[in-house]
Queue: 3 jobs
Job 1
Amino acid sequence: MSFRVVRSSKFRHVYGQALKREQCYDNIRVSKSSWDSTFCAVNPKFLAIIVESAGGGAFIVLPHNKVGRIAADHPLVGGHKGPVLDIAWCPHNDNVIASGSEDCVVKVWQIPDGGLSRTLTEPVVDLVFHQRRVGLVLWHPSALNVLLTAGSDNQVVIWNVGTGEILLHIDSHPDIVYSACFNWDGSKLVTTCKDKKIRIYNPRNGELESEALCHEGSKATRAIFLRHGLIFTTGFNRSSERQYSLRAPDALSEPIVMVELDTSNGVMFPLYDPDTNLIYLCGKGDSVIRYFEVTPEPPFVHYINTFQTPDPQRGIGMMPKRGCDVTTCEIAKFYRLNNNGLCQVISMTVPRKSDLFQEDLYPDTLAEDAAITAEKWIMGEDADPVTFSLKDRVSIVQGGYVSNSGNKSLSVSKKANILNKAAVGTSKSASTATLGGGNHAADVGSSSGSATVSGITEKDLRDITDEIRKLKAIIVKHENRIRALEAAVRAQEDDTDAVATRNANNNANSNNDTKASDSNKKDTNDSSANDNGTSATAASDEA
């Protein structure tokens, strides 16, 4: 008698379920760009999708409750001069999103709570460096306001968005960078390139630590760091068969696992859940989502199941775990873009009978707070991302959630930080203040003893007040000048009207004189005719 041993896993029965069409987002003009991007980014507040737009690039931002058919004239985020290629929400501020475009500029935007009421064209900051299109934007997982961008100029740039300054510039790639990913604490950076190689860098000094051949095929490859340090890649072999592999950072050239999946042209995007160690493979043009579990025992990458849909997908976005519904044991949620303008919502669920909070399914997950500032990170300090328990900090409301963190808004700072949160983490000492209508945490002042609010000192506030006063004076001056110009224009229009009236009167008088002259001529002619008739009659009588 033979026995078949079934691997034990709490995720073995995970299944996907598509929401009804009225609970999805319809009538969206998804971008038709050929760039290999997901075209979609999701966080617990908003859904962002890159769309077709005349006269430049744009993307649409929708609150999650705005389901159904989207109006054709819905406001967009449309400040780019070329098509938008990639977008990414800031993990530490649900209202901030970065976008890269063919116009070579990276823009960072602030989205108001509740969504857009009019088209947004003014970003918080423009990051200008790249000489060719920017196809990749990526936020640091634990450092505040650290953003990575990569373009077709083969350059990788790491920015401090709070100051708009470049922290690091990597120019050692010989060709286009396809993908990039930080490790769990952001101390390592993995990239894949068009030259078929995978590289690991120190993101603080740009030092190349290791490189190896990734996949033998010439099509686009992707690589991501897993939570415990391994690297997962997707790509193609020489026969255009799609592959995935698992590698150790210290042995990149010797994959632990290399598996041929199928034969297709679509690039595969690996979407990773660090809480469950599940990887979802979504291919561009595919109608399926395959999911795998990564474990320490062979074969290390275990196939679980496949979610099948009738329509091919053009792009996809994955909701962070703090946006999932824990009451239904939802462990992942995907927003899948179809070619017919539908954004389909797919819920991945573990079947459980109990309605209680399932602690084994929901370990501590990534929080909204940053663990370290950009300045400390670039100086060499590492910190794991801040985590929290969904049971403690998420309130369940009608199958959804309400985050306990306060609303965040942008604040203008002369120096350190454009974004609102100064230095946040698990061991912060902060006071709560209100600036510009937003509630946010503020660091207590430096050793000099001066209190700060979001990094703004009393002197800075006085300077800002003086600047506002000067601007008001300039505005009043311009308003007076505008009123004077308007009065001059009105006077000129009145003079023009008077001249036109006089000309009309003169023309009328001239016409009257002409008519009178014609009448007089007619009377004269009639009189002459009468005289001639009388003379003729007299002559006839004499005869």
Job 2
Amino acid sequence: MQTTGKKVIALDFDDVVAHFNAHFVVFHNKRYGTDLAYENLYLYDNWELMYGCDRETMALRAHEFYNSREHQEIKPVPGALEAITHLSQNYSLQIVTSRPEHIRDVTLNWINEFFPVHFEKIHFTNGFMGAAGSIIKKKSEVCREIGATVIIDDAIKHVKDVAASGLPALLFDRPWNREEIPSGIHRMHSWQEIVDWIKMNA
């Protein structure tokens, strides 16, 4: 349900608002001696091939990063601050992130530094490295609950899920999502493209 008279836009957090992977690969290379490059992160969930470890080890490394100084030094995605400031004047912007609930405080600290008044709500779905036993919600389910009119995300599996429910989905172009996309999904290469699309369609 919408909580204001404004149309609701759902936004993913990592690599849509915060430039997560660009900073994580630097952290991972320094800490674990790897030689990863952001542009070569072409497999979304294949931890063994991309990072040389299994999912459990990757979860530990991700949480180490969440609690590091480097995490708080993540910068917004280029163009995000200006675009989100502009959109927040006319839309209810709500974060729908796969991040686990137990790193809410770390996430909110970052948001409050760069986007203190821009987002109406933050929804954690526990889809990425959530604690054992945590309840995982589909982003399409959250979008339905909040009455979203469009979602912006970088993960193919999430935009496919949302688009299948009949909601338009904007796929933020990243190295790991450069594959053919079905109808209902629109590939965006910048925040300016996103703003232009929303002006015309949302």
Job 3
Amino acid sequence: MLAEVRTFNDPQQHAGSIQGWRQVYDQLGRGCLTSELRQLSSDRFQIFQEVLDKRVVQRGYAPKGRLCAAMSLGCAPVVQGQQVGTHSVVLLRDGEEFVLHAPEGMHFFALNVDAVRFAKLAAFELSDDQLKRLKTTSQLSVDDALLLRIRQRIQPLFRHLLEQTDAINSTAEKMLEEELLGAFLDLFSHATDEVRCRRGNFAVSAYLVKRCQELIDASGDTPLSILDLCEHLRVSRRTLQNSFQAVTGMRPVEYLRNLRLNAVRRRLITTSACTHNISEIAMAMGFFHLSHFASHYRQLFGESPSETLRAMR
């Protein structure tokens, strides 16, 4: 079982260190990022806790064959177009795609278990309505006291195994897996309400932001303008502006520029200066005014492009 506590100054290094998750983290908040990741990961379950001090958008795919649950311990994020409260538990299933807008200071606690094993246990314990919830809902609304009890059952053992890795053995793994499975059963059997996807303005805004992200990803190295996106989505600039402000807290031009700056940073980190110089990478991502590019880069990441550590030849 992997047991580790790590700190990072790069969002993608943080994202790539969470076992089993295929994901990209794009930094949106300005300044040098500091984050912490604590994780225990085995063949049949995983627990991780992450803290990020800058606004970040996380997107990707959950682990295959797993049922995943996550709860916010701090500032509330937006997940799958829904605002997550302190009493909410977010659910992802079996490689499901996700988008998470994490505010500055986000503190997330996440668990996952083997989906097949849990389904067998759930069939004996949950009602038909609860089993339906297991298969369909994206969020559970759970009493705060229950969430506290679950954390009090899991977190002490989680902390102990991270601090005393020599205590990790098959017995400890089995004990922790059973605690997690029990916690999932409690969540589904005691959920007071199913949080349904909002069909109002916020859900529409979240959908438009998600579609913009998909269009940008599909465009490759061809930057899309705000007007390009408006044309693709058949919406006005005002609608796009209001949607981004509601979901991401920033104007679309700033959000899209930050995504391109993150793409430049990933390219810098994974290539050597001998094969690709900074200006080539910047211009490939649509930054043709290099002094403006360098200024925006420093504002976002707290360092100049030339200070970003490049890959060895």
